[in-house]
Specification:
Strand 4 and strand 5 form a beta hairpin. Helix content is about 30%, strand content about 15%. It contains 5 helices and 7 strands; from the N terminus they run αααβββββαββα.
Length: about 230
């Protein structure tokens, strides 16, 4: 009982200290607000927003647990080789770890997709393999963008885009507990549910790859003429 009594005040104190750090480093209040909602480090929010503004990009991220925000950049992000789900504060126990590996990871930022805005539409920049090799599923442009971002982010991306994985029975899909951050040419937006994200995709003519349940179809559904799947 003693531990549970002090857990929440301690977490709030640490998070308050992190917000004070953001302000000392000149992070805009709007980026701090999105950080609070998304669980992402506010400095990463600023970096992603500024990068998408400078390069006419759209980057969509599935967010970590908000209560783990103060630990972003302090603990290593969960690598793609660790499949255990996060628990309180987004912490992930590193089971079956090798000597020298961290004993705990933090829930990472999951890239959903990456696009460049050209003319009046969003052109997808596929990034299935990261940090793997280039092929038709992984563009040099997308790979270079994310590699450069990872040199600047407090919590770097650990793998490629979920939207580019293709149809496989192992595809994670999306779920009711997921929430998302959108960085659209310098504007940042938090989306609470995948149903709202699906609507956002379709309103802009972007392919939404998931069933109403959030599951990725397996076998794959045939492509529609409008490219929305």
């Amino acid at each position: 009982m003693t531990t549970s009594t002090f857990k929440i005040p301690l977490a709030e104190f640490i998070d308050h200290s992190r917000v004070r750090l953001y302000r000392e480093q000149g992070v805009p209040e709007s980026d701090i607000a999105l950080s609070t909602a998304s669980g992402m480090d506010a400095r990463d929010v600023r970096r992603l927003r500024e990068t998408t503004a400078a390069r006419s990009l759209l980057i969509i991220v599935r967010c970590p647990k908000p209560e783990g925000r103060a630990l972003q950049g302090e603990l290593p992000p969960k690598p793609v080789t660790v499949h255990h789900k996060s628990k309180d504060f987004g912490l992930v126990e590193a089971k079956d770890r090798r000597p020298g590996d961290p004993s705990v990871y933090l829930s990472d930022y999951d890239l959903m997709g990456l696009w460049r805005y050209e003319g009046s539409r969003y052109r997808p920049l596929p990034l299935k393999n990261f940090p793997g090799a280039f092929d038709r599923t992984t563009s040099f442009e997308a790979w270079t963008i994310v590699k450069r971002l990872n040199q600047q982010l407090k919590a770097p991306f650990q793998h490629g885009c979920q939207d580019d994985l293709g149809s496989t029975w192992m595809h994670p899909g999306v779920s009711a507990r997921d929430h998302f951050a959108l960085f659209d040419r310098g504007r940042a937006l938090h989306v609470d549910a995948f149903t709202d994200l699906a609507r956002w995709y379709r309103q802009r003519g972007m392919a939404w790859h998931y069933l109403p349940s959030g599951r990725h179809p397996w076998p794959p559904l045939p492509e529609r003429a409008d490219g929305r799947g």
